[in-house]
What does this fold into?
Amino acid sequence: MVLVQLGTNATDAFARIRAYAYSHGRTVDDVARDVVLRKVDFRTFGDEGSLEASRNGAIA
Amino acid sequence: MTDISREARIGAAFVSLADTLTADFDVVDLLHTLVHDCTSLLDAQHGGLMLADPMGHLQLMASTSEQADFVEMMQLDAGSGPCLDCYETGTPVSVSDIQEHGDKWPEFQKAALQRGFRSVNAVPMRLRNTFIGTLNLFGTGVGKLSSTDAALAQSMADVATIGIIQKRLLRESETVAEQLQHALNSRIVIEQAKGVLSELSGLDMDGAFATLRDYARNNNLGLHAVAERVTNRTLDILSPASLSPDAKV
It folds into this structure.
């Protein structure tokens, strides 16, 4: 799902999920579940500074 | 489907299993066929199938629903459950009432009841002394499989097991463990493809899998091959042009 959202491949998508999980102090499993439940959408974070954007509540 | 006799449906299930066992069959496809056919034939509402990886640890390979997925994964996480016992002992494990008799595996009991499962039958995937996994059928009602049905489940599991082990013999250099590792990798790609389809279409994971599988079936392609192309975005199976007239189930 994330690879579609970011227009990338599975390897990079996984790296982004891992980065997101790390910066939010959550597990990859946990984040993956939210992606499947469509609670987290990586499109909303933009290309760069994605972690910053999410911290600032850009998810909505 | 009451107009089709049960014997005919059983026959059809074995034919579809045999049909999956072509020269270069897709293991994950075979396992899905097996678990779906058993579930519909044997008065079970949900099914799951686990195979052992090269380290001897069970991995979930196929399931008929996200609920079954959850209960299977939960057992693997907890390291205990009737399906694990079935694999470890190489004998069927049957729990006719999970609420009454499931307290041997508290985590499993809780997860199963929470998902509406009341009974389970786990059947070993084995060929003589080689155990490769377990086929698990969940019921939303209490009760045991009849001995005929239990034998039927075992027969279908045996046919699939022979196919998997036979495939190994065809590729002499590969061990069962290596082959199961391939199957496992195949499953990862299929999960990724489900994600791609779900994201593009808004389908849930079960719907995404059905779409993937129907496309592979209708176009005579392996599930793994289709999944790979969906994941690397070289194949769009959602566009109307890619659907054959009867693709919708």
Chain A touches chain B at residues 1-5, 9-10, 36 (CB under 8 Å). DSSP finds four helices and no strands in chain A. The CA atoms of residues 20 and 26 of chain A lie 8 Å apart.
